[in-house]
Specification:
The protein is an alpha+beta fold and about 210 residues long. The protein has a four-stranded antiparallel β-sheet with strand order 2-3-1-4, with helices on both faces. Strand 2 and strand 3 form a beta hairpin. Helix 2 crosses helix 3 and helix 4 packs across helix 5. The longest helix has 25 residues.
Length: about 210
């Protein structure tokens, strides 16, 4: 039996612009009191499903790298987890080509066309963790969700002092107490996670 190693990309779907479908016309001219930390992490429409997101990633790979890039990344490429409430997803791809998938996510600047959306919603796909097992990615989801709640509460009191910065960096660093370690993700750190004993069944394929 041959073990095929994968990488699991934990991503946040951020919304730098408010969704027009959620704005009420009567309040369109009034300034929003929602902190940046909450606005940026708005929920994702329920119409966005894992197959639709996976198709959008493949289309972006095809656009950037052509048929060759799509061919080498299609094996194992799958959206294993998608939470519209937290706008968080876990994407599985092969270890050899995860950087191509990462690049495609970076250039994905709009959600796919959805039935309830008149126009594609602008977004930013932020890769926040690369793991060798899905268990590590799930643990990171829980940790960052807790940090996001604290950062959102802090943003309601200090909106002018940078609520967006808190949700993207400082709030998470304060929770983990490892700001310098989390500022970059080295290849060596990714490789070490392969020794996790294959606790995720998706790592082993015959």
């Amino acid at each position: 039996m041959v073990r095929i190693k994968h990488r699991y990309l934990l991503v946040n779907i951020l919304y730098p612009e408010p969704s027009r479908s959620r704005q009420r016309p009567s309040h369109a001219s009034q300034p929003s009191n929602i902190p940046d930390s909450i606005q940026c992490h708005s929920p994702t429409p329920d119409d966005l499903t894992p197959p639709i997101l996976a198709r959008a990633i493949r289309d972006q790979i095809l656009y950037l790298y052509g048929d060759y890039g799509l061919g080498i990344t299609s094996t194992g490429l799958n959206v294993k987890y998608l939470s519209p409430a937290t706008s968080t997803a876990i994407i599985r791809c092969s270890r050899e080509n995860y950087q191509l998938v990462w690049a495609a996510l970076t250039f994905l600047t709009n959600l796919p066309q959805l039935p309830n959306q008149p126009t594609p919603q602008p977004c930013v796909i932020q890769v926040v963790r690369v793991s060798g097992t899905i268990r590590k990615a799930e643990e990171e989801v829980i940790k960052r969700a807790r940090a996001a709640i604290l950062a959102a509460r802090e943003g309601t009191h200090h909106e002018s002092s940078g609520g967006l910065e808190a949700i993207l960096g400082s709030g998470i660093d304060q929770m983990s107490s490892r700001s310098h370690e989390n500022s970059s993700l080295s290849v060596m750190e990714i490789e070490d996670e392969d020794d996790d004993g294959g606790q995720d069944g998706d790592d082993d394929e015959g």
